[in-house]
Design brief:
The protein has 192 residues and is an all-alpha fold. 81% of the residues lie in helices and 0% in strands. It is built from 7 helices and no strands. The longest helix has 30 residues. It is globular, with a radius of gyration of 17 Å. The protein starts with a helix and ends in an 11-residue tail after the last helix. The C terminus is likely disordered.
Amino acid sequence: IPLIMITNALFFLGANLFFTSYTPFLKANDLSYFEITGLDLYVTVINALASTHMLSGFSKKGEPGTIVEFLSLRAIAFLFGALASIYFTGRPVIYVTLLLYLLIGMAYTNITIGMNSLLYRFLPAGRQGGTLGVYSALNSIAMFLGSFLSGNISFFLGYPVTFLLSSIALFGAASLFEWHFKPTRGEEEEPI
């Protein structure tokens, strides 16, 4: 359980590092509030579509390998955001964001479904409430720190550094999960 909590805290830290500064980044690139709101609605629709049984059925099992893959996908998307913030400015940022939000939204839904399934599978009998309280508190602290650090990092070091650090947090979460659970992927090959 502690590893699941730490991994999820890294997930929320990375998410808030990214999203706290991404809206100001969009505004700095001359997107209107209407366009930014449209992009926010777009990622919400992606999250909703990704939660349908057809797209999230495999995540509901809470398999560590699936969680690692979606944590890695989200980390790659954040890394792409860091690179895109260097190479794209002005109007083209909206097209980059559409692709970015597609990847981020698909990953988010499957990570949260998988993590919650895994967490509920390992909750200690008779102590579910206390364990969930600690889990919630750690996530809240991680979100607060991510938001607080995001603004300061962006101000002093720029958006690309903030987005890179968000990617590192997600890659850290995926690596920690991979190291602990050592998930298998696909079928093991038969020796010849």
